[in-house]
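Schema walk-through. Below, the input block comes first and the output block second. Nothing else is stored per chain. Lengths vary across the set, and this one has 330 residues.
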Amino acid sequence: METTNARYNVTELRGLACLLLVAYHTVGVPGAGMHVSDDSLYRYLTSSFELIRMPLFTFISGFVYAARPVREGALVVFFSKKVRRLLLPFLIVSTVFYLLQTNAPGSNGTHAPTEMWRIYVFSYAHLWYLQALFAIFAVVAVADSFGLIGRPLPFAAAFALSLVAFVAIDTQANVWSVNEAATLLPHFMLGVAVRRFAGTFGQPRVWALAPLGLAVGLAIHQASLLHLTDMHIGWKSGVALLCGMGGALTLLRVMPSSKVLRTIGGASYAIYLYHTFFSAAVRIVLLRMGWNSDLLVFGTSLATGIAGPMVIEALAVQRPWSRVALVGRA
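--- output ---
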């Protein structure tokens, strides 16, 4: 396990994923964020990484989990840690985000549900990922605790089932972000497999397939983005799997060492939780001051969305209660 981890710059990869995430939320979806036009270069660039961004986060989570998987008899301890790490910050950040979104001047309150309780049950803002990731951890941890996916063939069967879930689960209610959990589960499983079966994934021919799949997926996705085809490429598509899995494997292989990305990646969880507070606040202030240059708004919001949460984490870890409540750390 140690040699496998040493071969890859996983923390830098997290840093890259954070940059892609904050850039995406800075630009925003139509009607939110920077309010750029659909044919804007900013929207095109962030949309180009749409099929890589969250699969990459999830792949990394699976890879890291595989270093210390759940063992028989350890489920209670595992879930208690995940409740502290994921669900407690989820409750606190969701509440604060909702109150600001619906009351702060200049925020995008129209994208918030009218009934507050819905933010804790259904997919909400960027915090849906914490629900989905907790669900993914639950499925994989239970399987590991019973020793069901420790060997290659049973794991391959479980991976095949995750692909079935990827295709089949698409509920209208989407309680606890189950749709997104099903969509991202194969990427988590791939991350686990790369670490658990390092001998198989260390073979050159396996790594050669990753950039090939990525290239094919990106070519089709770009054709869609550039309106060269009428095909709509969504998360639940073969193209999405090619981009997500091919991208994660390729980036894991080629990611260089970088002090900047390593610093960002070390604060990835805090950045995920709090980046929207800072990037949105800076955007609102700049626009109210009349500084509406897209480049200025984008660059400043991106930098603040990265640096602000790092400050929050640095302050939060100074006290036991804030360390647990704000960043889920013991």
